[in-house]
Design a protein that fits this description.
- The protein contains seven helices and four strands.
- Strands 1-4-2-3 form a four-stranded mixed β-sheet.
- It is an alpha+beta fold.
- The chain is rod-shaped.
- The protein folds into two domains: 124 residues, no CATH class; 112 residues, 60s Ribosomal Protein L30, Chain: A (2-Layer Sandwich).
Length: 259
C-alpha cells in the first residue's frame, strides 16, 4: 500500500513537473524552432523535475509528460504563426486588388474624358475632313493622302455618334454616265480605306456626283484637277427623336389637334 501511494505521488509530481516546463518552453519558442527541439526541452525538464520528485519512476513519467506538453506547446505556436502568415497574405492580396480596381477606374475615366474631348472638337468645328485629288481617269488613292485618311477614319471610329460622308466627283470631260461611274469608284476606294481604319460601313454615307457639279471652263486643265476629287467630311449624327414625338410634331405642323 505504501508503494502504491509512493507511485501515485510520483505521478502527480511528474505531471506538475511537466507543467512546470511550460515557462521554459515559452522562452525557448520565442524564436521559430522545430518540433523536436521543443519536445526535447520538455523531456529534459520533466525528467529532471520528475527525478527530484519521485525518483527513477518519477523521472520516466516526468519525461513523458514533459514531452507531450512540449509537443502540444509547439503545435499551438506553429498554428499561431501559420494564421499570422495567412492573414498577412490576405492583406497583401486585398491591397493588390484595391490597386487594380483603382487603375481600372482611372483608365475608364481617361477614356470617357478622351471621348468627350473628341465630341467637343467636332462640335466646335463646322466641318472636319479632307479632300483627296485623283489623276485623270483614275480611282487610286495617292500614297501621300493615305495616312491622313486613315487617321480620320480612326478618329471617326472612336466616336460612336459620328458618321462620315464620302462624295466622289469627276471633271466634265467624257460622257456623263462614265464620269458618274468613275466618281463612284473613287468614293469606293476612300470607303475601303476608312473601313480598314476601323470605321463601320453603316456609319458611312457614300455619294457619287460625277461631273454634274463641275463649274470648270472648257479646256481649263487646272480647274479640271480640282474637279477630280473625293470630299470626306466627319459629321455628328442627328439626335434620335422618339416616334411619339415625331407624330406629335407632324400633327402640330398640319394643324391637327389630338386629344
Amino acid at each position: 500500500m505504501g508503494t502504491r501511494k509512493k507511485y501515485r505521488s510520483a505521478i502527480v509530481l511528474a505531471v506538475v513537473a511537466g507543467l512546470a516546463t511550460l515557462p521554459a518552453l515559452a522562452c525557448a519558442d520565442s524564436e521559430p524552432q522545430h518540433n523536436g527541439k521543443s519536445e526535447d526541452i520538455g523531456i529534459v525538464s520533466g525528467l529532471a523535475i520528475g527525478a527530484a520528485a519521485g525518483g527513477p519512476v518519477g523521472a520516466l513519467i516526468g519525461a513523458a509528460a514533459g514531452g507531450l506538453l512540449g509537443d502540444r506547446w509547439h503545435r499551438q505556436k506553429q498554428t499561431a504563426r501559420e494564421l499570422s502568415s495567412d492573414l498577412g497574405a490576405s492583406e497583401a492580396e486585398r491591397s493588390r486588388l484595391t490597386a487594380s480596381v483603382s487603375d481600372l477606374n482611372g483608365s475608364l475615366q481617361e477614356s470617357r474624358s478622351h471621348g468627350a474631348e473628341l465630341e467637343q472638337t467636332v462640335a466646335a468645328a463646322d466641318q472636319v475632313g479632307m479632300d483627296l485629288s485623283f489623276r485623270t481617269d483614275d480611282s487610286a488613292i495617292r500614297v501621300e493622302d493615305l495616312p491622313p485618311l486613315l487617321k480620320l477614319g480612326a478618329l471617326a471610329a472612336a466616336m460612336p455618334q459620328a458618321r462620315v460622308r464620302v462624295a466622289g466627283y469627276a471633271d466634265p470631260r467624257g460622257p456623263a454616265d462614265y464620269n458618274e461611274a468613275l466618281s463612284a469608284h473613287r468614293a469606293a476606294a476612300v470607303v475601303a480605306a476608312l473601313e480598314s481604319a476601323g470605321l463601320p460601313r453603316e456609319r458611312l454615307i457614300v455619294e457619287a456626283h460625277g461631273s454634274g457639279e463641275s463649274r470648270s471652263a472648257a479646256g481649263d486643265l487646272d480647274a479640271y484637277a480640282l474637279d477630280r476629287r473625293v470630299v470626306v467630311r466627319l459629321e455628328r449624327a442627328p439626335p434620335v427623336v422618339p416616334v411619339a414625338q415625331t407624330v406629335a410634331s407632324a400633327a402640330a405642323d398640319s394643324g391637327v389637334v389630338r386629344p
